[in-house]
Amino acid sequence: MKQMTTIGWREWASLPDWGIVIRAKADTGAKSSAIDCSSIEELAGDRVRFTLRLSLKSNETLTLETPIAMRKHVRSSTGHGHDRIFVETTLELGGAEKKILVSLTCRKRMNHRMLLGREALAGSFLVDSSVDHWATPRVKKALK
User: Fold this and answer.
1) DSSP 3-state assignment of 45?
2) Domain named Retropepsin-like aspartic endopeptidase: which ranges (predicted)?
């Protein structure tokens, strides 16, 4: 049986494919994961260019280009449906590493730039919702 990594409801998620560490909220009520983007532009060859908003407190951004992993209709927390583009990246969290799918969407009104849904958490992570930052200490230089 695979060893599960315990994480808190909020953690510093490393996305090494993109060279960033970002605060993420574990949300077992959400099926899929999402990351805060702007300027999402579909390109030839089933690729996408997008700009990640990395911080609530600054205008720091990172523009990336990557293959589209899939397109899917997703219902938001408000119940409204949207067609979203998903991309694949590597998640490193609490010593565990996993390839995950992340939808590109505007989360500028949300407190966390990234949401980790059940699909990303399943089989690798056990969420202790009573704890903030169980697996990763607060990182002074990480992006909020």
Assistant:
1) coil
2) 7-131
Between the alpha carbon of residue 125 and those of residues 45, 50, 87, 106, the distances in Å are 34, 28, 20, 25
**Residue 105 forms part of a structural domain:** yes
User: Residues 1-38: pLDDT tens digits?
Assistant: 678 889 999 999 999 999 999 989 999 999 999 999 98
Which residues, 6 or more positions from 140, have their beta carbon under 8 angstroms from its beta carbon?
none
Query: Does 94 reside within a domain?
Result: yes
What CATH number is attached to the domain comprising 118?
A: 2.40.70.10
- Count of domains forming the chain: 1
Contact yes or no for 13/5 (Cβ under 8 A): no
The whole-model pTM stands at 0.86
Instruction: State the DSSP H helix or E strand holding residue 139, giving kind and residue range, or none if neither.
Output: none
E strands, 28-95, in order: 33-43, 47-53, 61-67, 70-75, 81-93
- Dihedral angle, C-alpha 17, 100, 83, 110, nearest 10 °: -80
Q: For residue 90, tell me if it sits in a domain.
A: yes
Q: Quick one: how far is CA 46 from the chain centroid?
A: 21
